[in-house]
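Subgroup meeting minutes
Present: P.N., E.W., G.H.
Scribe: E.W.

1. P.N. recapped why we're keeping a running log of single-chain structure predictions: easier to compare across weeks, and new members can see raw inputs and outputs side by side.
2. G.H. added today's entry (600 aa).
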Amino acid sequence: MAQSEEIRYIVSIDFGTAFSGIAYAKYPEDGTKLKDSNIKLPQKWPSDGGRGEKKVPTTILFDDSEVKFGFEAIKAFTPSKQNSRCFYFEYFKMELYDKEISKNTLLQTTYNKDLSMPMLKVFSGALKHLKDAAINLIPCKHPDIHWVITVPAIWEADARQFMREAAKDAGILKKNVAPLEKPPRYTDDPMKLTIALEPECASLALFDQSKDQKTYMIIDCGGGTVDLCIHQKVKGFGDNCTIRECGLPSGDGWGSTFIDKAFESFLETVFTFACIDYIRKNNAFALCNMLEKFRNAKEDFEPKYALHLDGTPTEYVSDTVVTMEASPPFCKAVSDYYVTKKNQTNFEMKDLLIKQNKGLYENYSQFELDEKIFVTFFSPTLSKLLRHIRGLITLNKDIETLFVVGGFGLCKLLENSLRAAFESRCTVIISDNAKTDVVKGAILYGANPTIISERISKKTYGIAVSRSFDPVKHDETHRFTNKEGKEKCRNIFLKMVEEGTSITTAKFSFETTVTPLNKGDTEANIRIYEADRPNITYVTEMGVKLVGSVKHPWPNPELGYDRSAKVKFNFSSTEILVVVMDMETENISFTTVNFLANQY
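Output recorded in log:
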């Protein structure tokens, strides 16, 4: 698919919680292997302050007249914007993790809960900006692009489907079906987009570094989630190697933004919840600015000690302080609150902090925070991650190396803690390109998806079928008579793949033949179900969930039952791929399962 002649470029979008990245590469014309040196990244982003950032904040601002993204959205988000009909969103990717998802879900703005917008519009708006930025990088007026969008491996199938829908609305699936016509005609081609898993992409980016490590763990530490995968190198023909999955991906909401939230909660204890909530609702710009100062201090924090698995420091933390810039807008907002809402006309920030005695002090234009307090912002998040890794290593004794990627992977306290806890057991490697491994690896995956040779099925999947009713085998409650008077049994669960099964990616996992339920049917609706156990008889059983469907048109209704279609399923990809061949017309269609189908 990705190597067809009509596709000249691969473009990847690493859609992150805090930051996003893009990359592109041209397919080697001579068919040689795509190399890391062929992959191009942006050297700067608009309004990045001349810092030459390779990634951009995943922040979007919808104003009355325009939409701004990234650094431009942050720059434009002022107090006056907050008090208008202005929709500002940040960290919204987490809304797709571990939550019920619908195409029609409304998303509240980050700081004004009275304003909301369709979540699909927010995601597609962000993807459109990333898409346009990527196209502008490519040195070609009309590039033919295969797109790769990365998602966490721990996301459920409906969240991955939501990203596909957002990509469709962003114009990413559009294909020119009449390039010689003016104006050209476009249609949506689902095969123009590949959904890739973030830790798998990182594994490919580190492929050469991991050549001597047969079994290793990828720890992708992002802003929202931490994704972990255990991979094993499999020797192929010659020097060729592939990667097999040795266990189900795991992880949780242990990203760097949860450390920021711990600091925000600390501000509520110092200045009172009422004060911070007032600022959040009336001057979010000031709170954003203070959190940015904290993030800067967090990135500069390089202690010598580590954390135990329970989150306590491995050494005594001395009576030192961590210094961060005191945000002028935040200080003014606090002062305004106490003067106007608490009638403290002689309010002084320094006096309040001394009185509160919470470990935070003001020293001219700086805040000084007791290091003992500062490290507690990290403890809950890192403790959960460390204990989870210990469990994985205990169960998988062949793991030789821990590869750490992602922006949060550069946290010095995290590195120290990983080395202290696990370096006696395996090698710990912090990637030199931790921030860009995923987006670059996504290009490599788009060029050669079968390099991931085996995956493990997370669920048991099956389809609902009807069979001739057999009173010995079938439950009477599922008995029905079709339009032609034939007695049938409905809701039978036909198992296609079992949870925990290792599936080869280059092969279709299941094949079946479907026929019309009634003579005059014009469409087959193949309903797909999932469950967390292997043995299921009927799709109506407890714990069995309808997750999606594939529709196939039945031509020639005059043929009645003398029609059939061969359906093949591939469960080893990041999405369930389906090939349907109509046995009468011999037409073949390719698609992916729509995991939001039951919501439309």
